[in-house]
Amino acid sequence: MTLFSSLGWRIPAVLGIVLIAAGWFGYNFTERYFVAQTAEQNKITLRIAVAGLRGELRRYQPLPALIADKALIRHLLEAPENALLLDEVNHTLKNIAETVSASDVYVLDASGLTLAASNFEKPNTFIGRNYSFRPYFKAAMKGELGRYFAFGIASFRRGYYFSYPVREHGQIVGVVVVKINVDDFESVWQGSQNQIAVTDSNGIIFMSNRKDWHFKSLQKLSDGDLAFIGESRQYPLDVIEPLGIKESHAGPEGTEILVIDDGTEDEAFIVQQMPMREAGWTVHIFSPLVLARAPTYVAFSLAVLSVMLVLLAATFLAQRRTRLMERIAAQREAQDMLENRVAERTDDLNKANKKLREEIEERRAAEGQLRRAQSDLVQASKLAALGQMSAALSHEFNQPLSAVKSYADNAATLLDRERVGEARSNITHISALVDRMAAISKHLRNFARKPQEKIGPIPVAMVVNDAIEIMSGKLKSKAIQINIEQPGVELWAVGGQVRLQQVLVNLISNSLDAMADHMTEPSIDISTLQQGDLVRILVRDHGPGLRPDIAEQIFDPFFTTKGISKGLGLGLSISYNIIEDFGGRLSVYNHPEGGAVMSVELKAASRPQEVAAE
Residue 532: which domain range? Predict the structure, then answer.
């Protein structure tokens, strides 16, 4: 026990040291990895920069030789005092400079004196200046292609110079120089996160996308180097100073890590370089180390967070396991109690379920009885309607029967007199009257029989016409005019043909009652129309309309505005339920011009291939 107590504090300490060491090595490894990744990307950028510089130099390199080969240049060197010739050469050089986008093009004689230049019109023209001290002049006088970078003593602008000798009869009589503005080279590097710099053989930066690095030296210059620069006037000696490198050490993948003091703060860079031997240059890329450290910080933070999460998860799981064991013991005890209670509740539920099933069966039986009662009530309503129409129907049948008897008696007399044609005409009239009575009888038979329960597409116009035919006797007896308005297309709706016919008969009958003793020339307007996915049947009377309190109760069972023995108040209630069974809606409102409007709304349907008989 004493041993474990003495070791108890050491184990966390050792683990802490191990974690710190692992974190340190892990951070350094991650940083070197991302530095190496950055170096690989910078190699590509460096190659692109070098390729761009080489392309620009190659574009201008043959230019001085081509100009030196012009006879006009040789003639000027032979007769430099010829003013007309000098003017022509100046304009020629100006046109060449503008065409090839060169900074300046000029001609030197064998002594280094500038005879003609493309900038002859400018105040700081090169004409009259002697450049014999320039290395590019000395190289050309030796018969070589001269290359040189320098700070212009007249233009005060950096430039790269190409020179080539002008020969006459094998002798070098002058030099043609083409100067390129290096600002154009730097413009393509702007906007980069990296700093790109080009140094000469002395390590002096003469091109960079960072202007404050111009003419800064990457290495300490000797007295001899400074003397050569001063003699050739390559750069102003007063602007040359060290870059301010405070620290330098090797990095991964052949890189170098430099810490540079820019006067305000230290900044670390990953440095890579590539030589341009043909120009005597070295191209450097300085990538801020912070760009490589940013993903290092993220990766290291994620690693630390992952370790912490693992430790927290392990601690949580250990605590959870302890609690789980306690919970399992408690659950076992609770489970035993629960099983006992479940057994008790199961008996109660079985009894409750049995009682519920009995109640459901009772409700189903009551619902069936209610449906049968409703069906019987509907049938009784139809028979009552037929009874109310019996007097009109009697007249409707008696009138054609009397006509049939009269036509038959006349036909017999005509046959006795052998007037067969007239007798046949009477028989034709008899047949037409019989067809009319048969049609009325068919409508009454269809109206009186019990409908099937099936609901489907029905022709709206046919149902409306059948209902009017059934009511025709009563309508004629009361001299009611029917105005029918139907669209030019056939409308089909979802419903039952016989039951919808009963609803319309009921609505027409109510319209007749509403106009009783109110008008000398009563009429009923029936119209059908389709609105979107609904079909509407409107039955309008020209009576006094409905009071608001009556409109709210008109579809209630046993509500009626008729006198005693003239109705039970079930017709509209039954009609309302029939339309609801169809998935539709029956409503009533007063027309703005007078009278009440009964509106039947049904779902629109498509014409079926075969219409089932209802």
Answer: 451-614
